[in-house]
Amino acid sequence: MKADLVLTGADVATPGGVVRADIAIKNGRVVCLTSGELTPAADEVINLSGKTILPGGVDTHTHLREPGFTHKEDIVTGTQAAAAGGYTMVSGMPNVDPVTTTVERYLDAIERYKQSSLVDFNHNPSPTRLEEVGPLAEAGAMGFKVFMITDKGAVYPHMPELGVHHQGRLFEIAEEVKKTGRPMMVHPNNQELIDTLSERAIKAGDTSYQTVARLSASYDGIVFDSAISYLCRLQEVLGFHLHILHLRSPRSLDVIRQAKRNKQKVTVETNPHMMFLCNDWNEIERLGPYALNLWNGPDTTDLLWQCLRDGVIDVIGSDHAPHLREEKEIGWTNMFVAANGTPKIQETLPLFLDQVNAGRISMNRLVEIFSSAPAKIFGLYPRKGAIQVGSDADLVVVDTQRKQVLRNEDMLSKCGWSSWDGREVTGAVDHTLVRGQFVYRDSKIVGKPGYGRHTKPLRGEEADRMMDMYAAARV
Ligand SMILES: [Zn+2]
Q1: Interval between CA 127 and ligand 1 midpoint (Å)
Q2: Quick check: is 216 in a domain?
C-alpha cells in the first residue's frame, strides 16, 4: 500500500498515550501508526521531529455569527481562526438571525457552512419549538442548545426568542430532547433572580463593569447554582443527556460530582475564560468590557483545575463569541448594555499548552478535554477525537516549546482583538490538517472555504454505547 502522506518523527497523542510514531494517511484517514521499516511509502513524507501531534480539536460551542451578525464574524473568518487554533471540527450555535429553531433554518445554516467552512462542522439548534426537535435530530443535529438566559439591555447575544426561564417549559423541552438521544446543552441561569439583582444595581445608578461582574458571584453564586440544582434534578427524573455549559462555581461542582456518582447522564463543559480570565479579578479590572461580564468569585482557580484534571469537568468548549470593539466600548460606562462574549478559538489551545508546560495538566488530559471527550459525548468518536487506524486524519501539530506572545494583530477572527493580547505562552500550533489536508501550515492559513464537511453524529444504540463507555471510564 502506498500512502498519500506520512508524518514522521513526531510524538503522537494516541488513545493509549503519547508515543513516537509515524502516521500514514490515505484518502483522508489514518491507515497506519507505525515506525521504521513498517511505515509504508507515501507520495509525500514530512519530517516533524521535535513536534507533537494531537487529534484535532472538537469544539462543540462556537459562535460563528452567521447568518445575521456577519459584521462580527462569519463562517470563513471564524473557521480560519479555528484552524489556526488547532480545531478541526466546530459546531455553531443557534443565536444567529434568524434563530435556528427549525429544520429549514438548520439546513440553511448547514448550506452556509458547506460554502464557507475550512474545517468539518455541525450546528446546534435550539429545541424551543417542540415539533421541530425530532426532525432536527433526523437532519443531523448533534446537540441542542438551551439558553436559560435572556439579555435585557443588550439585544445580543441572548435573544428573548431563545430564552427558556419557565421550569415547566424546560421540563417539556427536556422530555422532547430525550427522545432524540442527543445531548441538551444548557447555559444555566436563574433569570428572575439576576433580573432582580440587576434592577437593584441599575436603580442605584451603578452600571459599572465591576458591579456586573460581581453580580454573577454574589450571594455565593446562587444565580448559577440554583439553575444547576434544578437541571440535575430534572435530569434525574427524566433521564435525558444533560450537558452543562460554562461551569465555574464551587457549589455547582458539588452537585455535579454527586450526580456523576449517581451515574446520571450529566456531562460538563467549562471554557477558557473560566480558567484564564473570569477567575482573575485584576484582569477583570484591567480589561473592563474586554473581559466578560462575570467573575467566578474568589479562590476558584485551583478547584476548577482540579475538576478538569479529575474529570468532574469533561470538556473545554471555546465559547468563541466575537464582538467588535465598537460594541464593547459602551461597557466601560454601562456594562448592562454592552455586547457580552469574547473571541477565544485561536487562543484556547496555546493557553492550555502553556499550562501543560507549567505542570498544571497532563498532555493526555488536555487531549481528552480538547478533542476525545467532546467527540465521545456528541457521538463523533472515533471518527473524530482520536489518532488511530480508521479515524479521520484530523491532526494538529504543535510545538510544545515554542514561546509566543498572543497579539491582537495575529487574531484571524473578524473582531480583531483578544482578551489575552500581550500574554506570553509556551506552546504553539504549527500545522492543522483536516482529513489529511493542511488547512493551516507553517502558521499560515492554506485551507479553502468550502472544504469542511457536515459531520453527523452516531445515532441510537451506537451513540448510547459510546456514551456508556465514556461514562464508565470516568470518576
Ligand atoms: Zn456560548
Answers
A1: 16
A2: yes
Please give the distance, rounded to the nearest whole angstrom, from the Cα atom of residue 261 to the centre of ligand 1: 27
- The C-alpha atoms of residue 314 and residue 41 are separated, in whole angstroms, by 39
- Rounded to the nearest whole angstrom, what is the distance from the C-alpha of residue 341 to the centroid of ligand 1? 8
- How far away, in angstroms, is 424 Cα from ligand 1 center? 26
Cα–ligand 1 centroid distance for 22 (angstroms)? 37
CATH code: domain of residue 318: 3.20.20.140
User: Does residue 34 lie in a domain region?
Assistant: no
Give CA–CA dist 347/459, Å, rounded: 32
Could you tell me if residue 215 is inside a domain?
yes
CB within 8 Å of 458: residues ≥ 6 apart: 379, 380, 466
Read off the C-alpha cell for 323.
464582538
pLDDT > 90 fraction of the chain, expressed in percent and rounded: 91
Domain of residue 209 covers 56-388
Number of domains in the chain: 1
The model's pLDDT over 180-235, given as tens digits with 9 standing for 90+, comes to 999 999 999 999 999 999 999 999 999 999 999 999 899 999 999 999 999 999 99
From the CA of 316, how far away is ligand 1's center (Å)? 12
Helices (H), 103-208: 103-116, 130-138, 167-180, 191-203
pLDDT tens-place string over residues 359-408: 999 999 999 999 999 999 999 999 999 999 999 999 999 999 999 999 99
- From ligand 1's centre to the CA of 353, what distance in Å? 23
CA 213 – ligand 1 centroid, Å? 17
**Distance of CA 44 from the midpoint of ligand 1 (Å):** 40
